[in-house]
Amino acid sequence: MVAVFDLQLEARANWALFETCGDTAYSEVALSLAEQSGFSGDEKTGFMKSQPSLSEAFDLGAQSSLDEWEERRPYSNQGFRRLRHEWAMPGQCYLGPIVDVTEDKIFQTVEVGGRALLILHWRNHLSSSESAVFSSSGSDVRVRYVKPAMGIATMACPSETPGAAVLRSFPPTREIVGIIDGMYGDSCKRFPTYDGVVFTVFCSNMLDQFGDDELAPSALAAFSYARAAYGYMSPCELRTHQEEQRAIGICRHGLDTWCCPAGCGE
To answer: What is the mean pLDDT of the segment spanning 193-204?
Structure first.
């Protein structure tokens, strides 16, 4: 995910270019980034405060974020709008309830590392074969972005919801977190151009490391963390996921079938 402060740093860099060369294209980018940062619900940096135009854009984004929850929000009185906001990012997987739906956005609450977040999805970026998945019924939904601007949403399997509860009640040790983070990082290094292979190898390594009984007392916290942080799927879930990908033209490597250098489209 792109950190909010990264948005503010990019805004600062573009504003400096605008002041140096006078090209308004840079100022427009800076103002847009400042507004996005404000919408994401983080604190305003000192530099942002010192530049009236950027500060105003930031405030506009923050107000827009609140307005999203003030207008016809049945859940606003439950405090969801006060959660930290983040836009959904390519390559990520999100598990949690859909709490609201508008004409162009879908709002989902998730928990990562014990912290509650509000994830914002563009509605036209998501697809699902399940009609009830976007009903904002409060049921847990899994959203996985198979490529930029393309997310697949499915109702969470019954086994996943208890896993999320376990993560809250029995957080993984630092050692377990380090092992799982390291496995995912190693997969990324081995297959830097194949997202699908990275994910498949990671899931396989989880089974090798922690066994195939996800509900075993010694493995509960590990698998729950892997699901929350990296979207881990069981072998059955992974097969279903790959079948869904094939149906929309994504190969087992996580690429467009006809563009895969491994020749999946031939």
So the answer is: 82
